[in-house]
Amino acid sequence: MDRSKIRNFCIIAHIDHGKSTLADRIIERTGLLTSREMQAQVLDNMDLERERGITIKSQAVRTVYRANDGEEYIFNLIDTPGHVDFNYEVSRSLAACDGAILVVDAAQGIEAQTLANVYLALDHDLDVFPVINKIDLPSAEPDRVAAEIEDVIGIEAEDAPRISAKNGIGIDEVLEQIVAKIPPPTGDEDAPLKALIFDSIYDSYKGVIVFLRIMDGRVSKGTTVRMMATGAVSEVVEVGTFGAGQFIPCEELSAGMVGYLTASIKNVRDTAVGDTVTDHTRPCAQALPGYKKVLSMVFCGVYPADGAKYPDLRDALEKLQLNDASLHYEPETSVALGFGFRCGFLGLLHLEVIQERLEREYNLDLVTTAPSVIYKVHKTDGTVMDLTNPTNLPDPSEIDYMEEPVVSAEIMVTTEFVGSIMELCQERRGRYISMEYMEETRALLKYDLPLNEIIYDFFDALKSRSRGYASFDYDMKGYERSELVKLDILINHEEVDALSFIVHADSAYERGRRMCEKLKEEIPRHLFEIPIQAAIGSKIIARETVKAMRKDVLAKCYGGDITRKKKLLEKQKEGKKRMRQIGNVEIPQKAFMSVLKLDES
Amino acid sequence: MNHKDRIGLYIHIPFCVRKCDYCDFLSFPAHADVQLSYMDALCKQIDATDDDRSVASVYIGGGTPSVVAPEQIERILCKLNKRFCIEKDAEITIEVNPGTVTGAHFDCYKRAGINRLSIGLQSAWDDELKLLGRIHDYQTFLQTFHAAREHGFDNINIDLMTALPDQTAEKLQHSLSAITALFPEHISAYSLILEEDTPFYERYAKERAGLPDEETERKLYYLTRDFLQENGFKHYEISNFARPGYESRHNSACWRRQDYLGFGLGASSLNHGMRYHNCRDMETYLADPCKMEEMLVLSEKDCMEEFMFLGLRMLDGISVSDFSKTFSEPFDEVFGDAAKRLIDSGLLEREKDHLKLTDQGIDHGNYVFSCFLFP
Q1: Where in chain B is the domain with CATH 1.10.10.920?
Q2: What residues form DSSP beta bridges with A484?
Q3: From A572, which residue of chain B is nearest by alpha-carbon distance?
Q4: Is B3-254 assigned to CATH 3.20.20.70?
């Protein structure tokens, strides 16, 4: 394999700037697929991804391009996830590339994620060239955006292709620049095998399929490989490259190539993203840098609506985890909800995606509790406990102090909204760090924010307070001491453990009050009156009452309206679906997520 | 005779002098010639029907059936007698409104075999009658009532409405006293219900200004029930009260799911396990009075549900053994759990073979009924 004819690259962009569409065009123009075979977005395999328009898992595709110089080039396009939840996966995908195409929207210009991704790419020594997309939009300002790219990011943008991926304008120029501006891979084919895992998926026929970038050496069928971080050893069954949505076996993968291997590995946990694959019999001296164990940031309880479906939920989680090593779960029980699992996620989007997949692909009806972060509870006996479930908070007398996770957030916003965004950050207990003007009309705000203030609806609030113009990115910063309390909810004088949550002492009263109001709306009237109370310890801080069921009026029923009467009764019954019995009160499942909606006005 | 071999007949007269502001029934004022063509079509529909089951009751409702010439009513009953085997002591009711009937009407009705009257009074207060958009005042009603008695009608129902705008307990009490003093055999008392597409709905649905609140509504209901019971009426169905032996047979049969055939515009039928109604458009009906619409073939489950939510309206409740005899599965297997839950929460009670609403159950009837719907 002539390495000088290989280009390994990715596309980086802010969400909605057209990354997947450009990927589609590249695949289309390089002729691997006919137009007829193209689905709207080939790279996004999962329906869910297509619907949400975001890429969740990294994917790769190999295409062949005949360039204007008459040579054939092999393009390995590695698609990266586009959401801050998946930052680590993004960084590993970037590490598998030699260069990156930076897509910037000709109307919106640079956004927070654009910057975050570019810096990430530059950190990995990737050669980045910009592409200005959506030039067909009436509001497109390619010149301004080109200048912005040069000013803000400091990469040359004068000859950046100005394209419309949607309409196929300027794609040829992009292809030529890939050849000209992305460097060919380097590496030593004869050195011991050293390959980076940038993704892995589980296939029921082949077992785990590991996505690799070979840095040095070679691998083929029969090689005994070892995962350097997890220590898993197995014999390679198949190696190959990526078609569009299919796997194409080949003889051997060698330095510079991107491809996959299968080795009858049963669990994706053995093939952690970022790990180094080497030859067990002739290992490389050092693993590739940058591997880290992915940590869950957000936790919530996941319960089957019907307790009898617990085994089904367990099976579904097991299957999902085969494909998603970043999903963690362990069994837990709740007085209110019975048997379920405490699940750990990379972030709120990851949580939502998993929840939707469980409901759609596994046909499960779920009750999920309010998301929580990991709090560090320093106990008076000197020990520290990681708290992921508010219910497990020790008695206050045993707590010395608590710490909560804090992130460094970067928010990019047009100047007119700076005030309202600063106000939002203030409300969310943010600590102002700095503000820089990127250009006259745009500012980059830096804040330290407690993670538990942003996992709920921060993103939505940001969008609504900036009319959609603000963009947002964050990094874990560390833990800080904080005045936290556990807020309990009592329904009909019974504490509902699944509704407890941890909150900063200053906002406890307000949250408790709103939680009670929200639950009052959610809980239907019963035959009796139901008090809803919020409490810290034994102190009740808020109360609402669900009045007893309205009594029927003296209605008549004659022969002519029996069909109509039945419809009315059915409507009455309809409201009773998806309810959870707690004590003698029936609570709708969505009430357990009410804490998420406290800021809706 | 098995009640399954008997049927009821319903005749719909969709005409009225003026449509009341709360009314969502299929009725409207019409000229005499339209009325006449309608009666012709009605006869045609009756002629086209072939059913040899014995008729236990006939009910002529509306609208205001008394607005059509009484001879036309006589003509219909003649027709029915020719076509059907109407039992000798069948209950034959006609709805009349005060101010639309004279002695001549009553003579005619008597001749036709009608033996029960239902008079739409609604209230003994003229201001309330006006508010409802009724055409009569209380004095007119009294004349109608006494005239009916003089003509020998010894089975009379009076319709009464509660939960009217600005209705107080005192006002309702007065209406009740006035009516019971007349010793009618039957009283239908029901709440004003805001139906969509009525002037009342437009007027009150948004703000409910003047409409009694939940508490008041209950008070009025309990007042009605207690007062009528104290005065010798039996509360035999959610909104119906009768002196012993004068329960409406036509309606009771309907709640017991006996078959009934409906004649006239939009009239509904339950016929051999099917529910359907005649077309609701006058022109279409006149052209083809036998056109049926929205035919619903009831499954056994549908019938079980109806058995419960209709049967439980009667305060004697449903007979568990009747249920098991009627259907292929015993009651306890079908509804045992639901019944137990409702008994435990105090909404139903079991008295030997009967399952019936408790006082609390009457208050939450719809909830109770909905518990007997299949998922």
Answers
A1: 300-375
A2: A504
A3: B370
A4: yes
